[in-house]
Amino acid sequence: MLNTTTLDTAEARLGAAYAAEQHLRRHGASLCDLLDALDDPSGFSALCDLHGAFGQPIPDADAVEGALQDIQRILADQTPSSLDRIGHERGLPPSDMTRWHGARVSEFLVRFRHAD
Q1: Who's near 8: CB < 8 A, 6+ residues apart?
Q2: What are residue 60's phi and psi, to 5 degrees?
Q3: Residue 114 in contact with residue 65, Cβ under 8 Å?
Q4: Cα separation of 17 and 49, whole Å?
Q5: What total of structural domains would you count in the chain?
Q6: Max CA distance (Å), the chain
Q7: pLDDT attached to residue 1
Q8: What is the mean pLDDT of residues 57-79?
Q9: pLDDT of amino acid 92
């Protein structure tokens, strides 16, 4: 007998992954700029992992979720003083960028959690 709950969960997780991919296509450059400015190699590595998960014909939903969790953690760990320094040095609005990208990443992670 086919377990439709498992199929529904897999479909919902895949939908969350596709939504994250669409978002990354539109706003990935800004997220890349932010992670580069934060000067945390693990942030850029997580973004590369995210891109790698989308490099398959069907995205690996677990890899997408894991990379998003890493990015969320890195964004949340930023101190106001480091963001102020980055803003001054690079002429970016890193506080605003961190809040905006953090909120988007959180929205995608909620979609993964609701899929389970």
Answers
A1: none
A2: -80, 100
A3: no
A4: 13
A5: 1
A6: 61
A7: 46
A8: 95
A9: 87
Which tokens is 78 given? 């930023």
The Cα 16–Cα 114 span in angstroms is: 10
The Cα 91–Cα 60 span in angstroms is 36
Q: How many whole angstroms separate alpha carbon 106 and alpha carbon 24?
A: 14
3-state SS class at 101: helix
CA angle 108, 114, 74 (to 5 degrees): 35
Pull the structure tokens for residue 28: 């990935």
Q: Which two tokens stand for residue 107?
A: 């929205």
Residue type, 105: V
Residue 67's domain spans which residues? 1-115
Would the pTM count as exceeding 0.70?
Answer: yes
Q: CA-to-CA distance for 24 and 47, rounded, in angstroms?
A: 10
Instruction: Write out the two tokens for 54.
Output: 């989308």
What would you report as the CA-atom Rg of the chain, rounded to the nearest whole angstrom? 15
**Please, are residues 87 and 43 in contact by the beta-carbon 8 Å criterion?**
no
pLDDT band at 111 (very low <50, low <70, confident <90, very high): very high
